[in-house]
Amino acid sequence: MSLVQPLTDPVVKKYCDQFAAQGAQLPGAEHDGIKSIRERAQSALSREGLPTRRVESWKYTDLRNLHRAEFSSAPEASVTQADIAPFVIDHAFVAVFVDGRFVPTLSQLDELPEGLSFSSLADALSDKDLEAANGVGEIADVDQPGLAALNTMLMQDGGVCRVADNVSVEMPIQLVFVVTDNSATESHLRNFIVVGANSKATVMQSYVSLGASSSFCNVVTEADLGQGANLRSVILQDQSQTAWHIGLTSVRVSRDAHFDSFVLSAGGRLARNEIRIRLDGEGADCSLNGIALVRDRQHCDNTTDVDHAMSHCHSSQIYKNVLDDRAHTVFQGRVHVAPDAQKTDAHQMNRNLLLSRNAQADSKPELIIHADDVKCSHGATVGDLDQDALFYLQSRGIDAVTAQNMMVQAFVAELLETMPEDSIRSCLEARMSSWLENLTLIKEAA
Amino acid sequence: MLSIKNLHATVHGKEILQGVYLEIGAGEVHAIMGPNGSGKSTLSYVLSGREGYEVTDGEIIYNGKNLLELEVHERAGEGIFLAFQYPVEIPGVSSMNFLRTSLNSVRRYRGEDEISAVDFLKLVRATAKSLEMDDKLLQRPVNVGFSGGEKKRNEVLQMSLLEPSLAVLDETDSGLDIDALKAVADGVNALRSPERSSLVITHYQRLLSYIVPDYVHVLAHGKIAASGDKSLALELEKNGYAMLGLEDTEAA
Ligand SMILES: Nc1ncnc2c1ncn2[C@@H]1O[C@H](COP(=O)(O)OP(=O)(O)OP(=O)(O)O)[C@@H](O)[C@H]1O
Ligand SMILES: [Mg+2]
């Protein structure tokens, strides 16, 4: 059933026209395989259109303002190492993308260890490294409609990381996506991560802005975990407060593999961080955690969908949101347990801390359980700061702002504490602190 | 050092304190007793500036300063410390971080240097030891999972670290076993000096045999209904509040 009339939808038409005009310059245009993926995505997009609030999973997130905005692909911007430095974590392999294009000169990818390969998606799709692109589009189903289809149709660049079997990559790989202050830019990024059997890797994606110009970043990340593989994915979404950020992470987790995800979302006027997991073999396991820090009129949507396709799988989710001013957060957590997925263990929790009475947190768990021998739970809380605790701290000489910050930090602390990589944890903690520094004292009790 | 005159205070529009007069001189220990619900905790909250406790009349002068004009943390800086009747659990805030932030805040307020991490650790360990408090407790978040008695000891630990000039102890003795009671009393007595004063709220004579008060007051119906020396506490223990023509519990 189609919820919009895409052929008459001017936004869909705009994008399809863009594809018609620029398709020949997109990477992989000369390859039939890639061309056919893009065309299938185009037909899904034309058929189904872009999601409106009438689509169940987009009920709380309205894209109309995004569709009204005008974007262009950016002219080449000159960005220096010094511009990038504040966003780069210590002790990591770093791939830098500026306005949606890989910039090797800003990247630090020398001496990749045996068994780890990196290439840009643009290189991988074109002749340079076609092997690496093998499998792109298989995990985030190319026939799936909406923004993912738009992404597949127009995907331009991104990071392709491959880890061979039985390799443990100790240093994190960081993909830094910088939007410059050039003009209102649009980018359709595709990351592709393959972790071989019994291998281990950590990939961090940082989305940041230089300046305040508005931009639209549409990202799809596909990750494929082989048997017994271990992937930690960290996303820092910290673009300017005028940016639109739509991200989808689609993951296939094989038998006994473990996928660990952490999303810190502090930027953007509208951000959606969607994660779809398929637990595809017995003993597969995922842990999805996130923090959203939002203020002013920011909107942040965390949507997850965990498919327990096999038995003896485990999933746990903890999402915590801190909202000030008129900010709005959405948490939608869907867990699907297949009929044969006995001994499933699936837990989900969403906690919201409101620092203003004008902020709004929507929370929607959805458990669809077709097996009978399972342990599933979900919960959601919305509350303000504990006034008794605030008074207790202040009565010990701690001023009101510091007391409030200690309490907000305490609210999210447990999620950051468990991050094993020091460089990533300190980067996220620093972002957290700078957000708190800009927090004014709560004017009225929420 | 502390002068309370004609203090009226309301909570949620209900007048709880109805004209309290109290003078505490430097170095003195005053005890406040009184039936449940008579306003003892309310008085302690008004002293420390808790939101929602509205002073509608009267004044509180502390060391020459109008206390009612100061923020909660400033009052702590001025040397007022409240040991809570019900200490608050604060999940996620580590005890050590809390204690250090507290101590350094008060030090800054008093124009002193912040304490170094090493000295702080030594100080906390020594203080916990003197209170016979297991310092493993301090590896937990503030008061989280502490027993009733452990929470009370933790209050006294904080008091000892901050060295207040006026310690207000709100039923710090309730729920304590004999050993804990002694440890807590020792902690309070250790702070006694010609400059430091205490206001000890209690229901029981027992504590007052360890912390011997200079004056004993009875708060009833939001006013000081009787004052005397330590013998008043003994008489009340024997005869109950009926001897003052009061019920044991205040009608709401
Ligand atoms: N937040 C509040 N809202 C409404 N009433 C309150 C509030 N706080 C205190 N009161 C009322 O004020 C009165 C005095 O309470 P307070 O806690 O000061 O008594 P107390 O003397 O400390 O009693 P106890 O000996 O039981 O500790 C009580 O009637 C209590 O119900
Ligand atoms: Mg009380």
Q: Characteristics of this structure?
A:
heterodimer; A: alpha/beta; ten-stranded mixed sheet; 21% helix; 37% strand; B: 252 residues; alpha/beta; four-stranded antiparallel sheet; 8 helices; binds adenosine-5'-triphosphate; binds magnesium ion
Whole-number mean pLDDT of chain A: 92
Q: Could you name the ranges of chain B where pLDDT drops below 50 across 5 or more consecutive residues?
A: none
Give the bound compounds: adenosine-5'-triphosphate, magnesium ion
Specify the number of helices of chain A.
9
Strand content bin of chain B: 25-35%
Sheet-strand content of chain A, in percent, reads 35-45%
* Average residue-wise pLDDT of chain B: 93
What is the overall number of helices of chain B? 8
Approximate shape of chain A: globular
Distance between the termini of chain B: 33 Å
Biggest sheet: strand arrangement of chain B: 6-9-10-3-11-12
Please give the alpha-carbon distance between the first and last residues of chain A: 42 Å
- Unreliable sequence segments of chain A: none
**Oligomeric organization of the protein chains:** heterodimer
What string gives the helices and strands of chain A in order? HHHHEEEHHEEEEEEEEEEEEEEEEHHH
- Report the radius of gyration of chain B as a whole number of Å: 18 Å
- Name the structural class of chain A: alpha/beta
